[in-house]
Fold this protein.
Amino acid sequence: MELNADEKERLSLLEKILETSKDSQEVCLRSSPIGHITASALIVCQETSRILLVKKPTWSQHLQPVGHLQEDETPLDAANRHLTWRLDLGFIRKLEYIQSDLDPLIPIDIDAHSVPANIADEEPGHTHFDFRYVFFVEDEDMLSKDTEMYRKHDPQWYGLDYLKRLNSFSKVFFKIQNLNTPQLKRRRFYGHLIAYSTSPRVSTIAVAHIIPDVTDYLMALRRCSNLLGVIAKPKSIDEDTKSLLLDKGFHLNFSARNSREQFSFVSEQITNAPSPVVLLDIGGWFSTQLKQLVDTHGDKLIGVIEDTENGLPKYEQLKPLPTPVFSAARSPLKDNEDFLIGQSIVFSTDALLRECGSLLQYSSCSVLGYGKVGSSIAHHLLMRGIKPCVYEVDPQLQLKAYNQNCDVLPWHRLLANSDVLFSATGNQALKLPDFRSLKNGCYVASVTSSDDEFDFSFLTSEYSEETITPYVRRLTGEHNYFHLICDGNAPNFIHGAVVGDFIQLVRAEMLLSIAEIASIAENKSAYNKNTFIQSLSQENRNHIAKLWLKIFTDRGLLD
């Protein structure tokens, strides 16, 4: 384990006790004579980077709140219980537990230290295996001095350097220093969200890109719902992430969109679900099967949450909606992600062109569609000194493109003059006649899945293929030749589709939308099948935005 890699030698005695014990729970009890587990809380002030210690009369010094476990109690439960014995409840409620591993029960540190015999209690010398958990508090003044608890236990703040002078704390000092990681910030963010959401327990099935930053989101989804399964989008699967999720016990499904296998999988999970089910979608994967799923399972399927602008129209076409549908596609929170998606599309396309010996900045670049992602692509091309051409059917967006220094061209002129074409319509923009009209050598890139952006019908019968690089194919026909990037799929997943932690905003919106759907299900009269697709409340969006700013923009612990 990354955080506790050095503890194997320290815990060799604990390992031996567990190996020789008939009941592994014995080591949790104080009656275990050789040694037993204790649990403690390390309370760190974010503002001052100091740690709170309380008076330990039997040892004549201040230590962290610590104590023994009770029967059938986890170490984390015990750490929380000993907090209530030594600090007032008002202060404890202000503490934030910092989950240092994907599993919340795993402590940041496990220490082994000898405890001398206690003649008064007839207790022989033994070893304590201390499971240590970290809690943050915003500032020291949150601890009230005018309480009986304060007078009894004399809590005092100590600089973290003090820990280095204590033999059993020298290693945990460095672990606390290294807590300010992107993974920890994500876990704190989702931990706050789960605490904020008060929805009844529901089951979920989620479509997901299996990429490195999805793990914390799926762990949070599993904590706040009964996650029945994850349908992996086939064109964005990172093998290491896939292996990690399987090791963590996630039920991954690899069926194709709109396939019988997908319907069977979803239907089986709903049938066996112990609670009402919400579907979390990316790209309209459930849209064509939704009516049949509702007809089959009735009120057990209580709603769908769609993430993308590409998937939203697929649900808008369902009239009436057979079940409540929420969408984050047009949320102001998602604008931040969409802007960075455009940047990542430009970055990856540029990298792939360079592998082919071409440079983006000397190419005539065009964008089909001036929505949120298309306009972002145009913006990032302009930042590189490239004035893009734009085709857009909406006259207001045409005006916007022109205002933002883009050339707005008619369809056939744009196709005939583009060296690089970014297709951002989500509406099968290019069909065989359009491919025939492309300029010789044009590179074609999409911002989404190929089946959403292009109609490849009859293409292979007219064009021969040649592999130029692993991600670029040349298609040559009677009329012209052009290059297809990533088989028509979004190229940014080659480089991780990195948009930073702005993607957590939309994932958070989907998590909180579960609660709103559950509320509708509880009050059936509130849902009218003629209702338009709904979105998260402004209050909840504001909460997400404030929380994101608090977690992801602070300078961090110990900076």
User: Anything to note?
Assistant: The CA atoms of residues 210 and 237 lie 5 Å apart. The first strand starts at residue 35 and ends at 45. The radius of gyration is 28 Å.
